[in-house]
Amino acid sequence: MDHESDSLGRVLQRLPVPEPRPGFVDRAIARATGETATRAPARGVAPAWQAWIGAALGAVVTAAAMLLFQRPQVPPEAPATGITLAVNESRNVDVLIDSERELEDATIRIALTGGIAVDGFGNERSLHWRTRLDQGRNVLSLPVVAQSPGPGRLVAVVEHGGRTRRVTIDLAVVGKPEAKS
Predict the structure, then answer these.
(1) Alpha-carbon distance 89 to 148, whole Å?
(2) Residue 96 belongs to domain with CATH number
(3) pTM attached to this predicted model
(4) What residues of the chain score a pLDDT lower than 70?
(5) Which are the contacts of 144, defined by CB distance < 8 A and separation ≥ 6?
(6) Structural domain includes residue 11
(7) Of 95, 71, 117, 113, whose CA–CA distance to 165 is shortest?
(8) In this predicted model, what pLDDT tens digit does every residue of 48-63 receive, in sequence order?
(9) Whole domain around residue 142: which residue ranges?
(10) Does residue 63 sit within a domain?
């Protein structure tokens, strides 16, 4: 048996010894003495500052893509339209409310700003009532009177079943108020 182990030792001595990996000796000594080894940087791995720059660049590209491709969630609103009135002029302003289905017990709220009012309601700035709306086109005709020059706005809000639809009409009042005698 001694002879067999002796020949195995000779064979092993003749084999080429591979070179150790970079930092092997330092790691082996550090492990043997209980110290922390300083690792040699791995090949193909970016330094920390390059990784942070890459992550920041990726975040910027992601944010830009989200802004470009994501549609904002805006409640349905009819486009604003404009009407010009002279001071003291009274005119019926039609508000179109298009409903997908019949709405029983819907609430309609009217809000007014600027120098306009609903004729017959004095200086009331808001009105509301409950009504039934048919499926399709519903036209609400409001008698508006121009009281003083400047911009104004009529906002009609329809509420039903937790859903809201808003129609905005911009109004401009031009001219000078007539002097009362």
Answers:
(1) 10
(2) 2.60.40.10
(3) 0.53
(4) 1-13, 15, 17-18, 35-49, 51, 61, 63-81, 177-181
(5) 85, 90, 91, 92, 93, 116, 117, 118, 119, 154, 171
(6) no
(7) 95
(8) 667 677 777 777 767 6
(9) 77-174
(10) no
CA dihedral 158, 153, 112, 144 (to 10 degrees): -100
| Structural domains counted in the chain | 1
Token couple for 29: 């000594």
Other beta carbons within 10 angstroms of residue 178's beta carbon come to: 8
SS3 assignment, position 18: coil
CA distance 119 to 106: 23
CA–CA dist 108, 156 (Å, integer): 7
* Residue 40: partners with Cβ closer than 8 Å, 6 or more residues away: 22, 23
Residue 165 falls within a domain, yes or no? yes
Q: How far, rounded to the nearest angstrom, does the alpha carbon of residue 85 sit from its chain's CA centroid?
A: 37
For residue 158, is it within any domain? yes
Span 10-32, pLDDT tens digits: 666 676 766 777 887 777 778 87
Task: Name which of 96, 120, 90 is nearest 108 in CA terms.
Answer: 96
Question: What pLDDT score does 27 carry?
Answer: 79
The amino acid that residue 130 corresponds to is: R
